[in-house]
Write a structure and sequence with these properties.
heterodimer; A: mainly alpha; B: about 450 residues; alpha/beta; four-stranded antiparallel sheet
């Protein structure tokens, strides 16, 4: 036995988790929402998504290789996830150059400027999205009419119609008559960003990620539960001015944000209790912006704001320690 | 119904390849190297010299101090020399090296298979025999058993827990012992209960050993104070604190001993050794060792004399496979990789695991993605990702504030990390350094 043996500290076995497995699992979970977006928006949906992915991967590769001068890790799948999520957060008719610019900001500013994967405090796709929304508000809110939408419904998003209607002095019942039914909202038959429209598809992806333990239930349940409760309170208090809570769950980026954006591991808290606090914060801020803010939708801002609170949550919300002496 | 600990835990692949293999006696070796520091506490003092004739059971090293115990020859023969020998820790330890001749046992030792149930010895006498026989914790911790049986003043034992969990993958020595020596384990349990002055004992067994659960339940059906508790298959259920939590619902406070919550934990192997010591006058000279691995021809459970070189065990299991990349003393989660197969079997050697080349390599380390998995699997409620960062940056005081000393080194965090970060390596570094700081602080006051 002249063979040299490996000597290393325990543990000597590794679980089957890996970054790649997590990231490509998230990609798989996004397929139902992608399929629905193609169904409702056509092949433009494929085009936007592919451009966003290609640009994200390209920028990450170039920055790592030529600016950071480290071995590129684009194959870990995180840039692909960012690209898809960026596409999911923009209108299907957004010009190509703006998609590329969004990817540059998402990857370059949101991620790589902090040192790369694991170091970014904010969700990169949302950094890109909010940059585009603030810098190019017209293009970012020019909604292509959902090709399946029946005549009579305009191209505006349900939340946009709500905000505009209230501003014009319309009543909730008047506005409701212009909106898709709850079933249509749940199914995805409405205007909106490419990947946010179908609650059922997003929920399917969420269930898959829960089953694979890529995410835990705490953040999405806290976000959606908080939106439901607070919108429910407002609706009960004044049904003439506030839409019902189910409407708010199925519209805008609530489902996409709660299931795919807020659960981003890097930018959300470590503990389950921390995740609940994080999710509740997102829900509250979303409700405030939707009902009292200038924008029709606020979940992107809400998630970014709570991303900023993650280090604070991690510092103060610690796991219950075994054997803690009172 | 199954019980378990509340916080954390992982489920590594079990790979209990040798669960169906009955215990076999390993033939006598040619030479044994018996370290005199095989237990927690002070090394024993050598009482033989080169050239001395010894028999199986001869005291070759005497306990020194309260936390210490005797060391006995596991063979008959002549003391070849007293020299430093590398053990599985990778460090050289003083050992008595004996050339084996025949198999003569000291007088008074009953080597028959007869089961003896009754004794008239009182608690003190039992404990004296346990000390004399060199009994230590055979689950792997090797804490001197007589010390556990002597609660500090003001502390009282209320329940004895017998640890038959064996939550380490691959290992099956406790499993086989329960199946084949269950009656002896029950007698040993009653001796431990008597020594402690408790009237309740619980045998905890993980649910992946249904035959052992059934067997022990059969044996305890008429024992009013002893029960069997099936436990969920979740690593590290066999950890002392996790076992107490699962069975009694109590948590051992940080920095305290199990006796603080009225519990004393002993391994099934230890209970068996106590039986042999008290009823058979047989000191701890041999133990069951699992030899296993995915490429091993005959995964086995061997009864091995202490001091036998690991080479002999591997040969008995069919020889070292060509694709072996790492040899571990113990299990894959907490065991120690050895540098050579010449290291001796000691009282704490529960298994020898041969790992293949491809599995011996550690995966490439990647950035922490702050997934929180290490926090969620830590059974002690620590924050491994943070403790690692603190050790890397030498923030020892903050590491202490975040309770690095509470780590039980189960390895769940490193096991589960999707970025393959060496969390436990750095935590050990933190524990070692903070431990020194604490001791220095105490010695100042």
């Amino acid at each position: 036995m002249n063979k040299l043996l490996t000597v290393s500290p325990s543990p000597h076995v590794q679980g089957d988790e890996s970054i790649r497995k997590i990231m490509y699992g998230v990609v798989l979970a996004m397929l139902p929402a992608f399929a629905m977006s193609v169904m409702f928006f056509g092949w433009n949906s494929v085009k936007v998504t592919l451009i966003a992915i290609a640009a994200s991967v390209f920028f990450e590769y170039v920055i790592q290789k030529y600016i950071m001068k480290v071995k590129p890790t684009v194959d870990d799948g995180s840039a692909i996830v960012t690209g898809i999520l960026l596409a999911f957060n923009v209108p299907v008719g957004l010009p190509v150059w703006l998609i590329v610019l969004g990817a540059l900001v998402a990857i370059g500013v949101g991620k790589m400027s902090f040192g790369g994967l694991g170091q970014n405090p904010f969700n990169p796709a949302l950094v890109g999205r909010v940059f585009l929304l603030i810098s190019f508000p017209v293009q970012m809110t020019t909604w292509t009419a959902n090709k399946v939408v029946a005549d009579g419904f305009s191209g505006a998003t349900p939340l946009g119609l709500l905000k505009e209607g209230l501003k014009n002095g319309e009543t909730i019942s008047q506005i409701t008559s212009q909106l898709p039914s709850h079933f249509d909202l749940f199914w995805g038959n409405m205007s909106g960003s490419l990947g946010e429209i179908s609650a059922v598809a997003l929920l399917l992806g969420g269930v898959y990620m829960l089953w694979k333990k890529i995410i835990s239930w705490h953040t999405p349940v806290a976000v959606l539960g908080t939106i439901f409760i607070f919108e429910g309170i407002l609706w009960l208090a004044n049904p003439d001015r506030f839409m019902d809570p189910m409407f708010h769950l199925f519209t805008g980026g609530a489902m996409l944000g709660a299931i795919f954006m807020a659960t981003d591991m890097v930018s959300s808290p470590m503990t389950h209790l921390g995740q609940l606090i994080f999710g509740i914060g997102i829900g509250i801020i979303t409700v405030l912006i939707r009902n009292f803010g200038a924008y029709p939708e606020g979940i992107s801002f809400a998630i970014l704001i709570m991303n900023a609170f993650t280090p604070l949550i991690n510092a103060y919300v610690k796991p219950a320690r075994f054997g803690r002496v009172a | 119904m199954l019980k378990t600990f509340k916080m954390g835990g992982v489920h590594p692949a079990e790979n209990k390849l040798s669960a169906g293999k009955a215990i076999e006696k390993l033939p006598l070796p040619k030479t044994v190297s018996i370290p005199v520091a095989q237990h927690i506490g002070a090394p024993a003092t050598v009482v033989v010299k080169r050239g001395d004739e010894v028999k199986v059971g001869t005291v070759i090293a005497q306990s020194s101090g309260f936390v210490s115990t005797n060391i006995h020859s596991s063979v008959s023969g002549k003391v070849k020399k007293i020299d430093d020998v590398m053990d599985s820790s990778g460090y050289k330890k003083k050992a008595v090296i004996i050339d084996v001749e025949g198999d003569e046992w000291e007088e008074g030792i009953d080597t028959s298979e007869n089961l003896i149930r009754e004794t008239h010895l009182d608690a003190k006498e039992i404990n004296a025999k346990v000390l004399a026989a060199g009994i230590v914790g055979l689950g792997g911790a090797t804490f001197p058993t007589h010390v556990k049986l002597s609660p500090p003043p003001g502390m009282t034992a209320e329940v004895l827990l017998i640890n038959g969990v064996e939550c380490e993958p691959y290992l099956t020595s406790d499993h086989r012992l329960m199946l084949e020596k269950g009656a002896e384990i029950i007698v040993g349990t009653k001796l431990l209960m008597k020594s402690l002055g408790v009237n309740k004992a619980v045998i905890g067994i993980e649910n992946n050993k249904p035959d052992a659960i059934t067997r022990m339940q059969e044996l305890t059906v008429n024992e009013s104070g002893i029960s069997v508790q099936p436990l969920k298959v979740k690593y590290p259920q066999g950890g002392e604190k996790q076992l107490i939590k699962a069975v009694t619902g109590k948590e051992v406070p940080s920095g305290a001993l199990p006796i603080a919550v009225g519990a004393v934990v002993n391994n099934v192997g230890t209970a068996f050794a106590v039986y042999e010591a008290v009823m058979k006058n047989k000191p701890l000279v041999e133990r069951v060792v699992t030899v296993t691995g995915k490429s091993v021809k005959e995964p086995s459970n061997l009864m091995v004399r202490i001091g036998t070189p690991v080479t002999d065990l591997v040969e008995a299991a069919g020889g070292m496979p060509e694709d072996t990349g790492k040899v571990i003393s113990g299990g894959p989660m907490m065991g120690r990789a050895v540098t050579t197969l010449e290291v001796p079997v000691t009282k704490g050697t529960s298994g020898i695991l041969l790992i293949r080349d491809e599995e011996a390599k550690r995966n490439e380390v990647e950035p922490c993605i702050r997934c929180g998995k290490c926090v969620n699997v830590c059974p002690m409620g620590l924050e491994p990702y943070l403790l690692m960062t603190m050790s890397e940056k030498k923030l020892w005081e903050r590491s202490e504030d975040r309770h690095v000393m509470d780590c039980i080194e189960c390895g769940s965090c490193s096991f589960t990390c999707p970025s393959n970060r060496p969390l436990l390596d750095y935590i050990r570094l933190g524990k070692g350094t903070v431990g020194k700081l604490i001791r220095a602080r105490k010695s100042q006051n």
